[in-house]
């Protein structure tokens, strides 16, 4: 019999493991751990068990089914991953382990962490502040595009411009849009465009791709160049779901390069309307200035009369009359020219009116409708005649007529017509179809003709 000393606190193995488990789980918050997958196992329970290792150590991990169902990839041995996990202990075996809450592939996860860190830092500095963003010009005189000269983005932009406003000049700043040299080149192009001020608005564009492909547009140098650019910049990078640091730092973000081109280019009809309004405004100002000059001339004439410079006054009056006559002739000529042009345009518009075409098409539609109705009626008559003849022929050979004369058709329970007594056995059920109705019968005796 073992004697126990009263002042000793003796732990059982279970108690010790539970205490260690509490210390581990209480001492560590959720942590991020990066390593290589090894020994990945997927039992029928749906949980995933594996070892996470690096060149110097390894740790056992468990990813339970409810979390494993959220994975966007299938874990496999040799993959480099990043996990968010709780430190714990599997008490029955005393094994130290990680309880994984989230797992992602390491390369993409590192880029996303770098993206979020840079985004938060630049946002605190005010680089994304909406108050400092510059408005886009309504009618730009020249558009600058910073992109690859051979990529799909520039083709999409030029296609949109040809459709909306083909007269808008475009200046391309060629840069690489992927790789280590892309970010410095893009930042330098932004600074060059800002200092030269050759354009009223810029588009920074690239087609879609992975997070790594678009990383040049997540560099700090590009974000600061966008912030310092004196010209409004529209960022059209990737597809609609792609959001880069450049999108946040630019003055306007477009979902795609094509959408960016639509934002900066006016519609041709709007531009023509703008020119028309400016022309009317110019004519009004010219008329106002002419009236002001005539009033001034009248004032000078009154002053000359008050001073009685007879000869000089007559010369000036004659000169004024001549200028007035020439002015009126010029105005009259201009008005006649404009009236004639308006008449020509009105005549051309009348010849191109859709009303004439509509009348011709309406008459054509009525003729076709009448022809269609006649053809349909004739077709229906022919089909009706054919149907009547077929019905008469069918009735002449129909077995139903035979049934009407007292005969019947026997079929098995499966619906097979009985032509031979060998097809049925005694006590089998058969069905007899009569001229009117059906009879369900049972075979009580059969005889086979020899």
TrEMBL record:
Catalytic reaction annotation: Exonucleolytic cleavage in either 5'- to 3'- or 3'- to 5'-direction to yield nucleoside 5'-phosphates
Enzyme Commission number, as recorded: 3.1.11.6
Location, primary (coarse class): cytoplasm
Cellular component terms (Gene Ontology): cytoplasm; exodeoxyribonuclease VII complex
Domain Exonuclease VII large subunit C-terminal: 127-441
Localisation per UniProt entry: Cytoplasm
Keywords: Cytoplasm, Exonuclease, Hydrolase, Nuclease
InterPro entries: Exonuc_VII_L, Exonuc_VII_lsu_C, OB-fold_nuc-bd_dom
GO annotation, biological process: DNA catabolic process
GO MF, one annotated term: exodeoxyribonuclease VII activity
Residue ranges constituting the OB-fold nucleic acid binding domain according to the UniProt record: 11-104
Self-association state and partner proteins as the record states: Heterooligomer composed of large and small subunits.
Cited function: Bidirectionally degrades single-stranded DNA into large acid-insoluble oligonucleotides, which are then degraded further into small acid-soluble oligonucleotides.
Family annotation (HAMAP family): Exonuc_7_L
Family: Belongs to the XseA family.
Stated name of the protein: Exodeoxyribonuclease 7 large subunit
